[in-house]
Amino acid sequence: MNVLGCFDGHSGGQIALDRAGIKYENYYASEIDKYAMIVTHANYPKTIQIGDITNVKGGDLPKIDLLLGGSPCQGFSFAGKQLNFNDPRSKLFFEYVRLLRECKPKYFLLENVRMKKEYQDVISRQLGVEPIPINSTLVSAQNRKRLYWTNIPNITQPEDKGIGWGMIREYGVADNFYYTERGLNWIKKHGERKNKKLVIWGNGDKCQMIEASHYKNYSSQRYFGIKDVKGLRYITPLECERAQTVPDNYTNHVSNTQRYKMLGNGWTVDVIAHILRGVK
Question: Could you give all domains of the chain from N- to C-terminal order, each with its CATH number?
Answer without folding.
Answer: 2-160+268-276 (3.40.50.150), 165-242 (no CATH)
